[in-house]
Amino acid sequence: MKLYIQKNLLEAKDSYSLRALADRLGLQMNFKPEEVLWCRWKLAEQGAYMLNTDGSVQQDGSGYGGTIRDGLGNVVRVYAGCSSRN
């Protein structure tokens, strides 16, 4: 199975979980560098609100946060939090 996976996944998208799996199975893999995707924030329509969120998961915990803005781009509320893995 090890040879089958190495042969069929010559180049795989880089991710923490795939690296961990390859490491556990003792696989030698060529990971493609992550593609950077640029995005731009747009104003909400007048009278509406925009919610922007983000989060991350690490081996030792996770984090999240967000911002609510009005139609003029003014920050109305923000929030953030985290959890740890013990």
Structural class computed from helices and strand pairing: alpha+beta
The number of helices is 2
Into which percent range does the helicity of residues fall?
10-25%
Beta content comes to 35-45%
Number of DSSP strand runs: 5
Strand order of the largest sheet: 3-4-5
Give the N-terminus to C-terminus distance in angstroms. 33 Å
Q: Which regions have little confidence, pLDDT < 50, spanning 5+ residues?
A: none
Number of structurally distinct domains: 2
- Rg over CA atoms, rounded to whole Å, is 20 Å
For the report, how would you describe the main beta sheet? 3 strands, antiparallel
Organism: Coptis chinensis
Protein name: RNase H type-1 domain-containing protein
Provide key terms for this protein.
86 residues, alpha+beta, 2 domains, 3-stranded antiparallel β-sheet, two-stranded parallel ribbon, 2 helices, 5 strands, elongated, RNase H type-1 domain-containing protein
Write the layout of secondary structure elements.
Blueprint: H1 2-8, E1 11-13, H2 16-25, E2 30-32, E3 50-58, E4 61-69, E5 75-84
Word description of this protein:
This protein has 86 residues and is an alpha+beta fold. The protein has 2 domains: 1-38, no CATH class; 44-86, no CATH class. It is built from 2 helices and 5 strands; from the N terminus they run αβαββββ. The strands form 2 sheets. Strands 3-4-5 form a 3-stranded antiparallel sheet, with no helix packed on it. Strands 1-2 form a two-stranded parallel ribbon. The longest helix is centred in the N-terminal third of the chain and has 10 residues, at 16-25.
